[in-house]
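Lab notebook, bench 4. We co-purified these components, and the gel suggests they stay together. Before we commit to crystallization screens, I want a quick structural picture of the whole thing.
Request: model the full complex, all chains together.
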Amino acid sequence: MSLYILGMGNLSPQKTWEDETLLSQAFDYQNQTLTSIEPDYEQWIPQQQLRRMSRIIRMGVTAAKMALQDAGVDVPDAIITGTGYGCLADTNSFLIRMIENHEQALNPTPFMQSTHNTIGSQVALLLQCQGYNQTYTHESFSFESALLDALLHAQDNPSQRILVGGIDEITDLSHAIQSRFGIFRRVLRSSLDLFRKPGKGTVNGEGAAYFLLSAQRPERGRKVCLDGIKMLYKPTPEILAAETEQLLQAAGLRRQDVDFVLSGHSGDARLDAAAAAFCKAVLPWSSIGLFKHLSGEFPTAAAFALWLSTRIIEHHHVPDFVIYKDSSRPMRNILIYNPYFGTHHSLLLVRAC
Amino acid sequence: MSNAVHIVGTGVISAIGNTRAENFQSLQQGRSGIGRITLFDTAHRNTLPVGEVKLTNTILAYRTKLKKTSSRTTLLGLHAAREAVEQSGVRDLGSLRVGLISATTVGGMDRTENFFPAFLQDIMKGRLRDVVDHACGRSTERIADALGIRGFVTTINTACSSSVNAIQLGARLIAANQLDVVVAGGTDALTRFTLNGFNSLMILDPAPCRPFDAGRKGLNLGEGAGFVVLTSAALCAAEKLTPLATVSGFANTNDAFHQTASSPEGRGSFAAMEKALVMANLAPADINYINLHGTGTQNNDLSEGTAVKRLFDTALPPISSTKGYTGHTLGASGGIEAVYAVLALREQCVFPNLRFETPMPELGLVPQRTFERRPVKHVMSNSFGFGGNCSSIVLSNPV
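Here is the predicted assembly.
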């Protein structure tokens, strides 16, 4: 079954909103943290509500409203959200005050907004959407789980329009903690050099992207659909290859039919060698592109990749700084392959339709 | 739903017992698990009662064969999930398409809050092993790794309705023939973070809670885990598994009223219960017992009670909240109460609502006050959460 992309909204470290030309310019970051380029939120959220929202909620709600506006739809039938880390700033804020105030006289607002489902709930509240509402939080399967849920939901409710998003934020504290695990580059003067200068570790990223999806082919819209999802937890290379083949088969495709692999290479030389080996062994005919030098690495980075794939299909064009291997193919069938820290592998099949 | 989905195993750990049998005994004898905080350090130790699981992390680690430094959320989760898998009789998880869908709201927060004091003094301080499992999904993966589940893992956090949503997703994946077996439910440990959070909202009762009572003063926090094992009717027959209950209906809606408060008329909870009945193809009069969300807060009980009264009207079956026993176990509550719903079906009984004296004057609803054996064919279980998330599930005797 296909899920048609009716509309999308994406806040990311690149200029991915009001983007007529598809990334005419790549934004470069110098400090291993790629943070979102944010719009004037007052254009999207009533001031009274905006005042109370933390940054991740602002980003999420705005991306949701952009997706709806893009599709020309006021209220969706269901809202499904994925977030790996949830509302970190609110969580940090409550935790710090709890420790500093010795558990006395605490302001409840950051606690109320600390649960992962706050983003999807605030979207529902603002739109007065009383339909199905779900939030996944499972590392890099968060957004993919949301997509899988949307697929199941659409099978039972083919005419419904489902808002599906992936959102994560960087905070100073979360970056400080994650850095101590040694997962980020120590020295990298330019994020755009991530793949030109091999090394150990990746760069930190964030973003908020929502997509309005439906099983019903739209009269107008983006002529791009999502045709398959797989999440593989700690697969062997053999299982990964077999599951890739199965995903394509289910969509009536062979491996040769994949025009473009948008691969989630992270810039970590060891992990990228495994990702490159997969591409070479399983999809040797395809062109390959990379995106994490643009989005950074974070649990819901595949949402950025879905946005980019959709735009590539629409534009019949891949920006130079995305291309890793050019096999001169038309852009009809794109496979997003996201191997998150080598343990969580996901596959999304995106097609022109 | 085209294909019937059965529950073939249940596991639970809570303040009223470490196993399914112990939980049932406490429910039957009206024995509450609410008491003083003994297992973690907090300024509210002597003032806020909670529903603690009576096992230390060391003992839980020994029983589950996990590391002592594991998050308590993981330890509790594996303890209950393993009991469910053992009861199911499903063998050789390796040859089937098996998934684990867990739910949690705190994840590894019980350890993160120990990491933070040193970290706030110096960002290079604090032991990393205390934050490595902070993210909610990590507890699910530790449980999946211990059970040998690789087919599918994911984690839901819709606050206090989380684990009913986990069971719903499991049932949908089986009905859609994407998985053969799903272990689904939720787990949450007590933490200072949630204790202080609910305290800051001023909705914690300084005495043991009194759900649905006119004089209710708030909820008590609890901890624990509850999991069920779901399979298709076809696999049940092929593998000669005993179905304990059938998942006959469920729904998930949003109240869209306020970030933490429910609408006065309970529009989200009404819609969730109504849609679950429609899916189950049942009338209100067919339900023999409702396990309420019934937290004991002013807002929840009035809102939920209003919705229940409007939907069930003259066909109101026995209703009760079991949170007077366990406390509110947040993301685990839907899983724990689903296990209780299966117990009600298996044992043909309904459970008492502890400490009820006076009906809410607005509604006059009188919940079940004693343990009673009676015919139970269909049970409804409600779970509602912050953010307006409302979920209802209907479990039935297998046909």
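Chain B touches chain A through 61 residues (CB under 8 Å). Worth comparing against the SEC data before the next meeting. The radius of gyration of chain B is 20 Å.
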